[in-house]
Amino acid sequence: GFLFLAVLVGFRRYRSGFRNLNRQIDEYEFLFRNSKIAQLLVDTRSDRLVRSNRAASRLFGFPRKTLAEI
């Protein structure tokens, strides 16, 4: 009885936290993608461009896919 209830409450809190994390990721993704400020995400271990946003594409005059290959 009590143990099952404790596990159920813990699972619901975990699931709720996971949903909040997904919502935050979606919000940051939206802000990154739609920002009017050019942004580049670089992997510092390999010095490779991981991602760029639309503003960076406009600033440098290349499609985002091409920027990632440079």
Concise account of the structure shown:
The protein is α+β, with helices and mostly antiparallel strands and 70 residues long. The chain has helices at residues 2-34, 54-60, 64-69, and strands at residues 40-43, 48-52. Strands 1-2 form a two-stranded antiparallel ribbon.
Overview of this structure, please?
With 70 residues, the chain is an alpha+beta fold. The protein has helices spanning 2-34, 54-60, 64-69; strands at 40-43, 48-52. The protein has three helices and two strands, in the order H-E-E-H-H. A hairpin with a 4-residue loop joins strand 1 and strand 2 (48-52). The longest helix has 33 residues, at 2-34. It starts with a helix and ends with a helix. The mean pLDDT is 83.
Write the layout of secondary structure elements.
Layout: H1 2-34, E1 40-43, E2 48-52, H2 54-60, H3 64-69
Antiparallel strand pairs: 1-2
Query: Main sheet, how many strands, which sense, barrel?
Result: 2 strands, antiparallel
> How are the strands ordered across the major sheet?
1-2
Q: Secondary-structure element sequence?
A: HEEHH
Q: Can you tell me the residue ranges where pLDDT is under 50 for at least 5 consecutive residues?
A: none
- Helix content, binned percent: 55-70%
Structural class designation? alpha+beta
